[in-house]
Design goal:
single chain; mainly alpha; 3-stranded parallel sheet; 3 strands; 47% helix
């Protein structure tokens, strides 16, 4: 994936219920992909949760603020939530797909009750792959 928003093809074609996996080589590509996903979600009237480490939250927020006026408003009204990955996934070695799926189901119901068209979640899971059973859990997820 190239490090440009214009090279993340077909992101606008993601629809409710889709699960997309994006691969990247450089951290800047991760932020570009997250930015495109988040912007598309917000544009579609969805609540959006970005799960990652704090430094990536800051980079994403900086990109949002530089390219979109009013980006902080999405945070202020809780339409965009930046969540530390350990707070939602636990330790990488303890990641369980079933727990995450249950949490997502709960968050979808909450988002709909709050008046959003749906819920979009993106997050970084690269550490999980290195643990015994991690690949199986990610595939299950």
């Amino acid at each position: 994936m190239a490090g440009s928003k214009n090279n993340i093809k077909n992101i606008e074609k993601i629809s409710g219920g889709d699960h997309v996996v994006l691969f990247y080589e450089k951290e800047s590509e991760l932020i570009d992909a997250a930015f495109c996903f988040v912007m598309q979600s917000l544009k579609n009237g969805q609540k959006c949760i970005y799960i990652d480490e704090e430094k990536n939250h800051k980079m994403l927020l900086n990109k949002l603020e530089n390219l979109f006026s009013g980006a902080k408003e999405f945070l202020n009204k809780d339409q965009l939530q930046l969540v530390i990955k350990e707070d939602i996934y636990g330790k990488a070695s303890e990641f369980r797909a079933d727990n995450m799926i249950s949490l997502i189901e709960q968050k979808v119901i909450e988002a709909q009750k709050e008046g959003y068209k749906g819920l979009s979640i993106t997050g970084e899971l690269k550490e999980v792959i290195n643990f015994e059973g991690g690949k199986k859990e990610i595939i299950k997820y």
